[in-house]
Amino acid sequence: MTGSETTPSFRLAYVPGVTPTKWVRIWNERLPDVPLTLVQVSAAEAPDVLRAGDADAGFVRLPVDRTDLSAIPLYTETTVVVIPKDHVVAAVDEVSAADLADEIVLHPLDDTLTWERRPGLPAHERPATTEDAVELVAAGIGVLVVPQSLARLHHRKDLTYRPVTDAPESRVALSWPEAATTDQVEDFIGIVRGRTVNSSRGRAQAPATQEKPQAKAKAKPRGAAQPKKKPVARPKAAKRGRPRRRS
């Protein structure tokens, strides 16, 4: 290896609530010689991290500006309200935004939901992070509406959550700079999309060399005329009778 060559690597950004473990494991199995580095970023800064080249690809929350970023939507999360376990909402299976009209609904600065009109009553101050907002919910200050993965991420034994049926949903996507669609990015796209190692787009490993099947004897079609066998000439049997007398 010359001094100008560097060991290939892959940097993957991900936002809170997204668990990339499964895809990282497959990457390590298929490309053990290409180390993958995880970079956790906030949902707000994820697009800029990709544009700056600080990560090759990343799991982001939509929408993102697709002028220079490509994105493959992966799944949509349920939106839930985080409440104390003894809250009245905990007695039902789901609620609507209107059911939260009399509640103080906390609005952290890193909120990932896009509302036309936020439900409930606003708090006097906005918490800096979702984690801070969860602490305020536990203190009885208000409730919090977030994607379900964030409710699970900041789970506490004294809190629970319920789906909000008419709240905006959060979509998670794999994104990368369009101008930097490298071979490693293509490999990771294939993993996320469930392509096999031998897929036509897969580059991770060359397909295993297959032995050429032995040529099978061509079967004769049914009903084909068979060559006639030549009859075997049999010797004529001698005629029986009295011997002729010579004159």
How is this structure best described in words?
The protein is an alpha/beta fold. It contains five helices and nine strands; from the N terminus they run βαβαββββαβαββα. The termini are far apart. 27% of the residues are buried.
The general outline is elongated
Number of strands: 9
- What percentage of the residues does DSSP assign to strands (E)? 15-25%
Approximate helicity band: 10-25%
The whole-angstrom Rg is 37 Å
Record the strand order, biggest sheet: 2-1-3-9-4
Q: Secondary-structure element order, as H and E? A: EHEHEEEEHEHEEH
Summing up helix and strand content along with how strands pair, one would put the structural category as alpha/beta
Largest sheet: 5 strands, mixed
Distance between the termini: 117 Å
Mean pLDDT: 86
Could you list the spans in which at least 5 consecutive residues all have pLDDT below 50? Answer: 205-212
Assembly state: single chain
The number of helical elements comes to 5
